Amino acid sequence: MILILFTYYCKTFAQVEQMNQLKQIGILLAGWFFIGLGILGLFLPILQGVLFIMIGLAILSSRSQFIKRFLKHLEERYPHHHARMEKLREKLKNWFKKESG
Prior knowledge:
Elements: H1 2-43, H2 49-60, H3 65-77, H4 82-100
């Protein structure tokens, strides 16, 4: 009986770990995808380049200390955009919590 429970727990734990890894990869891919779109948007008149870059940075800031420091520098340099970034960051955090919950 204990062996069966242990085996079930190990499978469940392995599945959770695998899902966490997939989530991290998905977040990184989404962040870099938006940054790529933003770079394209800087040259194409159809896309809003700065918006996509900020979305990508907001997504990646949950995983990278370098990007957090960069966003802090931008916050100090452009304080009028800080409130908009905070709203976006909260929306993204809530969205990912709903997805993982």
